[in-house]
Amino acid sequence: MSLKKESLSVREAQKLVLLSQRLPTQKVVGSAQEATLSAIEHLGYVQIDTISVIERAHHHTLYNRNSRYKSAHIQELIADKKVFEYWAHAASYLPMTDYRFTLPRKQAIASGKQKHWYKRDTKLMKSVAERIKAEGPLMAKDFDKKGKKHGEWKTAPTKQALENLFMEGELMISKRVNFHKVYDLTERVLPSSLNTTTPTNDEYGRFLVKKYLQANGLGKLTEMTYLIKKTKPLVTQALKNMLADGEIEQIRVADNEYYILPESLELLSKPLARKKLNILSPFDNLLIQRKRTSDIFEFDYLLECYVPQQKRKFGYFTLPILWDGKLVARMDSKADRKEKVLNINQLTLEPGLRKTEAFADALTKELQPFMKFNECNSVVLHGIEPPSLKFEFLRKFQSLDFQ
């Protein structure tokens, strides 16, 4: 039986969001690969990113939901036709069970109602598709590379044709080889039993609402439609219908009004593992929407790898740190895999963090599996803010060098 509440404290809202996000890392049943699939199905998507100073974002996000995660899981799940690549708010891995809800975007792009960033060359697209049909799965490098690169993306025409066919749904990514996409015909990638009917507007709108709220605990219209083009009218209508049907409720947190699934309030009766610490990816689902992160966790975060070096405050690639149910620090890190050293260029504690010794203990405990995850066996702390704590943290980290 669900609870009924009109408002939540900020602390309650934080707890609800974290438990909905399956953070801190929770114990999971079944095989390690099943736990990875469960995480992707629950979150709805996991963002793919190319930056590899620390293990890539998609692996990092799943590592924080599944302590037994292995980087091979994603490609295994793609081979088993349980996960596929497409676009959420960015390039992502999605559960195959949600495939039909990518069709509205694909059909809008194919019809010209929604623009993609590459200009369509229908003749070249047809030629590329016919070659894949005849030869089987191919990578961009398998096509003629003599074509002049053009457009602001400076991408080869055949690569642009492949990406257009992918975004329109004619092609899918059957696997990756050294992170390079391998394209194949959609009918050869999809499971034969999969429901591929296009959802109605009402189905699609309700899907976006429910999927978001299940994974995030509470949300606003702007958050549910974040970077998903032309969905605000559908989601607005879905919210109205679902409120009338009692499927969702409105709830206030401080000065913000959110939507929530009534059954999600039951999570508030469950414990939150506050002593467990997580070092998060900048692209983790918990904090990818920076304004939301600021509103709920009072944590202002900017990924500074896109900021000129002289203007950086915290470092090139800072990893937010979750502990005690809050975002309490950020760690600018780089894994030197050749030397097997995890470099912490700068560890910055939030001004409100008072229990520094307990935090140092929790960080030390988490750093050991995190180092292994990043193929490192030692750690070097180069700087800390405030500097007066450097000796305390260095003393804790002494136990971390291992072979």
TrEMBL record:
<protein>
    <submittedName>
        <fullName>Winged helix DNA-binding domain-containing protein</fullName>
    </submittedName>
</protein>
<keyword id="KW-0238">DNA-binding</keyword>
<dbReference type="GO" id="GO:0003677">
    <property type="term" value="F:DNA binding"/>
</dbReference>
<dbReference type="InterPro" id="IPR009351">
    <property type="entry name" value="AlkZ-like"/>
</dbReference>
<dbReference type="Pfam" id="PF06224">
    <property type="entry name" value="AlkZ-like"/>
</dbReference>
